[in-house]
Amino acid sequence: MEPQWTRDIKSFTLGQLQAQMEAMGEKPFRAKQLYEWMHKKMARDYSQMGNIPRSLTDKCRASYDYTALEAVRVQESNIDGTRKYLFRLSDGNMVESVWMRYKHGNSVCISSQAGCRMGCRFCASTLDGLERNLLPSEMLDQIYAITLHTGERVSNVVVMGSGEPLDNYNNLLRFIELLTDENGLNMSQRNLTVSTCGIVPKMRELADRKLQMTLAVSLHAATDETRKHLMPIAERYGLKELMEACAYYFRQTGRRITFEYSLVAGVNDTQEDARQLSSLIGRLNCHVNLIPVNPIKERDYVQSGRHAVEAFKNKLEKNGINVTIRREMGRDIDGACGQLRRRYMES
Ligand code: SAH
């Protein structure tokens, strides 16, 4: 069952919290104090809120839920220091998040749903389907828990863990509002990336909000035929529609699209694929991230070899397309989407 928004104190905006306090007969400034404890100081529960009277925290306890994650497992990569967290939500569901340290700052990759119903063939998160959407607070909690655990500021957030963020659209929007609120972490929209498998109508809705975040689109194929083979969502929205939505996103926001392209040996990694990809996206203001597919044991997809990856990259570059090969982080710790959660649930 979906948890209730109306009871979730950490998903309220400051304005909503003020209205709640007023309805309780409390002073309005209490709302700001509570909000700062939750979103600035990242309190794990009311007992840490030193300047709030006991009578008020008792009332809050009775009226609202206070989400908090429990870290069940933390794995650290010996190769690059990447940390992978497995968190238990209040109702027992599990999600995973990843912390990566880059030269320009720390990045956290969060999940937006427990499980996923998109069915991409190479992805471990979707193998058991969707459990439920995460609340805005539960998306924030992943960042808060990791900040407290590492003791270091998070400078970038990518919504690229388990789940399809545009399939949890309203909660995603509230999450963004809270994350970028000056009374909370006050993160810049420019330091946020949201990754979608390509839910076209929601991409257009998002474009109309004119946010300054980066939209990443998981493309993985340059023809409808190959894309349908890898991603069921391609049955609903064809590449033509998807490309139009990407162009619309750029027109509305001025933000260039990032395309993610996971290279699978013999499926989408030939020179002909690179040529088709170039003509598909060549006119868009975009950037391509090439990711050698991370094989999961439930499927027999094979990672493209180094040579094929380089040749693919060169072909795109020759055609004037911006491209990077995504550095594989945390290979030794089940870095791929949904692998850690799955392993835990099987054991
Ligand atoms: N649902 C969103 C975000 C989560 S998946 C989306 O589809 O974009 C994040 C990215 O990891 C997507 O590009 C997804 O296609 C990719 N991915 C998932 N499993 C993978 C694997 N085993 N190897 C390489 N990339 C994978």
Description:
- The chain is α/β, with parallel strands linked by helices and 347 residues long.
- The radius of gyration is 21 Å and the shape is globular.
- It contains 12 helices and 12 strands.
- Helix content is 36%, strand content 19%.
- S-adenosyl-L-homocysteine binds next to strand 8 and strand 10.
How many whole angstroms does the radius of gyration measure?
Answer: 21 Å
Beta-strand share of residues: 15-25%
Structural class: alpha/beta
- Considering DSSP H and I runs of 4 or more, what fraction of the residues is helical? 25-40%
The count of helical stretches stands at: 12
Question: Order of strands across the widest beta sheet?
Answer: 1-2-3-4-7-8-9-10-11-12
How far is it from the N-terminal to the C-terminal residue, by CA? 25 Å
Q: Cofactors and ligands present?
A: S-adenosyl-L-homocysteine
- Overall mean pLDDT: 94
Tell me the total number of β-strands: 12
Given as residue ranges, the uncertain stretches (5+ residues, pLDDT < 50) are none
Order of helices and strands: HHHEEEEEEHEHEHEHHHEHEHEH
Q: What composes the largest sheet?
A: 10 strands, mixed
Shape: globular
Characteristic terms for this protein:
347 residues; alpha/beta; ten-stranded mixed sheet; two-stranded antiparallel sheet; 12 strands; 19% strand
